[in-house]
Write a structure and sequence with these properties.
Elements lengths: L2 H8 L11 H39 L2 E5 L3 H8 L7 E2 L2 H9 L3 E7 L1 E7 L4 E8 L3 H9 L1 E4 L12 E5 H7 L6 E7 L3 E12 L4 H4 L2 E4 L1 H7 L6 E2 L1 E6 L5 H17 L7 E5 H4 L1 H39 L1 H9 L4 H37 L6 H4 L10 H18 L12 H6 L2
Parallel strand pairs: 5-10, 7-9
Antiparallel strand pairs: 1-12, 1-13, 2-11, 3-12, 4-5, 4-8, 6-9, 8-9
Helix pairs in contact: 1-13, 2-5, 2-11, 2-13, 2-15, 11-13, 11-15, 13-15
Length: 421
């Protein structure tokens, strides 16, 4: 055991006549508060990223294939297939199934529709509810009723409507609604509202209602193997752009080899919801500001506490100097004392942060305005890896910042100090 570590461990952080020095108490409180605020900021931003990403991906699919437009689309249309439709051909299925990152894919279609009651009407897209990702997302957003089992024939005329549209029309789960579709001609279907969902994404909630793929295909004059797009889910959304590039390259190669007869647009949820992801990136800037300010507060408080602690232990410093201790040894002793204060503050801050974040994750007791934040509670994502990195970074910064003020401990004149006692 080193001499500095032994002496620092034996020295008390308390002042004479007190249980704990006020400077030490303030230092511990400052570090604990700073760590708690920084940990909460990181967890909240992580929670927002998780929730918003899930919502955008739920509405748009991880990757979406759509027919190529332009001159090439005109050539396809001339071959007796509408240019806005695409088929899930055996060759295309083989390409999708050969990509190891694709976990699920399905045909998807949407048609413009008008929901009309006796007093009001509302326009929206009726979109087929297909694919595991889309189905899971809508299921977790349900507030009343149920999601129809579209594998059963009797669910063909059942739909899921958003709370925004249902409220505007005065509808609830179980009601029937006359739905008008304008294609080559006006079609009318009487549909049953089986369930109502609310994702708090008004831009999407006011745009989409969900129904069965067969009825959307029927209205859009599409055959059973045709749709307006193909919805694809991948195993890691953080790599979705990389996966999209790989899939696009595979499709181009297949087209050039004659395996498929048309090109496809490959669009990711990040591209479709670019505005939301830009907003999330702005939150990262806010977190950096919070981390910087809290670190500065903790460092300044610790430096002040360290200087006060030196004054409080002036006789110990003088005695060590009189016994022949070098300035560097005395400085290291007080750096270790300050580090001890920081460690106590870190431990308290971690405990408070984990307790608060865990309670919020389980109970959602801190609400948010969904109109402004797209979610009705403060989301948190507790990452012990991030917390460990935060602790190490704070401790390293504190240690480096204490090197300069610790030099004052070695400049005490032992003869003058001990003579005054």
């Amino acid at each position: 055991m080193s001499v500095t570590f032994f002496i620092a461990r034996r020295l008390s952080l308390a002042s004479e006549g007190r249980k704990l020095s006020p400077a030490v108490s303030v230092g511990i409180a400052a570090v604990a508060l700073a760590v708690m605020v920084m940990a909460c900021a990181i967890a909240i931003v992580g929670g927002f990223k998780r929730e918003i990403t899930a919502k955008v991906a739920g509405f748009n699919s991880h990757i979406m294939l759509t027919p190529m437009t332009g001159d090439q689309a005109a050539e396809v249309a001339s071959a007796n297939e509408p240019s806005n439709l695409m088929s899930l051909t055996p060759s295309l299925k083989a390409i999708l199934e050969s990509q190891p990152y694709i976990t699920d894919y399905s045909l998807q279609a949407a048609v413009p529709s008008i929901f009309k009651t006796s007093n009001d009407f509302k326009g929206a897209y009726l979109k087929s509810l297909t694919g595991e990702n889309n189905l899971d997302f809508v299921s977790t957003s349900m507030i009343s009723g149920t999601v129809p089992d579209y594998s059963k024939p009797d669910s063909k005329d059942k739909i899921v409507m958003s709370q925004s549209i249902a409220s505007d029309l005065g509808l609830k789960a179980g009601d029937k609604i006359d739905t008008y579709f304008i294609t080559d001609k006006i079609l009318v279907r009487r549909l049953t509202i089986e369930g109502i969902y609310n994702s708090h994404f008004d831009a999407y909630d006011k745009t989409f209602a969900y129904g069965s793929l067969p009825i959307v295909q029927e209205i859009g004059n599409a055959r059973a193997n045709e749709a307006t797009s193909i919805s694809i889910s991948v195993d890691d959304f953080s790599k979705v752009e990389e996966y999209a590039a790989e899939l696009s390259a595979a499709l181009i190669e297949a087209y050039q080899s004659g395996l498929i007869y048309r090109l496809y647009n490959v669009t990711t949820a990040r591209q479709a919801g670019a505005g939301y992801f830009h907003w999330l990136n702005m939150l990262d800037t806010n977190v950096i500001v919070v981390l910087t300010l809290m670190t500065i507060v903790a460092v300044i408080t610790l430096i002040s506490g360290m200087l006060i602690l030196m004054v409080d232990k002036i006789r110990v410093i003088a005695l060590l100097a009189a016994l022949g201790a070098r300035r560097r040894l005395i400085s290291r002793i007080f750096i270790r004392l300050a580090a001890k204060i920081a460690l106590i503050g870190l431990a308290i801050g971690d405990i408070l942060a984990i307790g608060l974040l865990f309670a919020q994750d389980k109970t959602h007791f801190i609400p948010l305005d969904p109109d402004s934040y797209y979610i009705d509670f403060v989301p948190v994502s507790i990452s012990f890896a991030d917390l460990a990195i935060l602790n190490v970074a704070v401790l390293a910064i504190v240690w480096l910042s204490l090197l300069l003020p610790s030099r004052f401990a070695g400049k005490v004149a032992p003869a003058k100090t001990l003579a005054r006692e």
